[in-house]
TrEMBL record:
This is Potassium channel domain-containing protein. Pfam families: Ion_trans_2. It comes from the Bacteria. It comes from Limimaricola hongkongensis DSM 17492. The chain crosses the membrane at residues 6-25. Keywords: Membrane, Transmembrane, Transmembrane helix.
Length: 106
C-alpha cells in the first residue's frame, strides 16, 4: 500500500510539472518543447506528461528537447524529482524495516 501511495504521489507531482510546462510554452511563451527529429508534429499533452515523467525520474531520454526558459524549469523538476524519489526510498526502507517513520515512538 505504501508503494502505491508513493507512486501516485510522484505521478501527481509530475502532472503538476506537466501543466507548468504547458503553461510556460502556450501561455507565457517563454520556451518550447520540441521532438528531436525533423518534421515531427507539435507535442501533445501526453508528450508533455511523458517528458515530465522522464525528467522527474532523471532518466533524461532526450527525444524531447526544451528550449528557452523551459530548460530552467526542466532542471528544477529533475532536482525535485531526485530529492523526492530519494526521500521515498528512505521512507520505504524504514517501513520495510518495521519502523513507523511518521510516528514519534518510531
Amino acid at each position: 500500500m505504501t508503494i502505491g501511495a508513493i507512486t501516485v504521489a510522484h505521478v501527481i507531482e509530475a502532472l503538476i510539472y506537466t501543466f507548468a510546462f504547458v503553461w510556460a510554452v502556450r501561455g507565457l511563451q517563454i520556451g518550447d518543447l520540441r521532438p528531436s527529429g525533423p518534421g515531427t508534429p507539435d507535442p501533445t499533452l501526453m508528450d508533455y506528461f511523458y517528458f515530465s515523467l522522464v525528467n522527474f525520474t532523471t532518466l533524461g531520454r532526450g527525444d524531447l528537447n526544451p528550449d528557452g526558459h523551459l530548460r530552467f524549469i526542466t532542471g528544477i523538476e529533475a532536482f525535485h524529482g531526485f530529492l523526492m524519489i530519494t526521500a521515498s526510498g528512505s521512507f520505504m526502507l524504514q517501513v520495510m524495516g518495521g519502523k513507523a517513520p511518521l510516528s514519534d515512538t518510531g
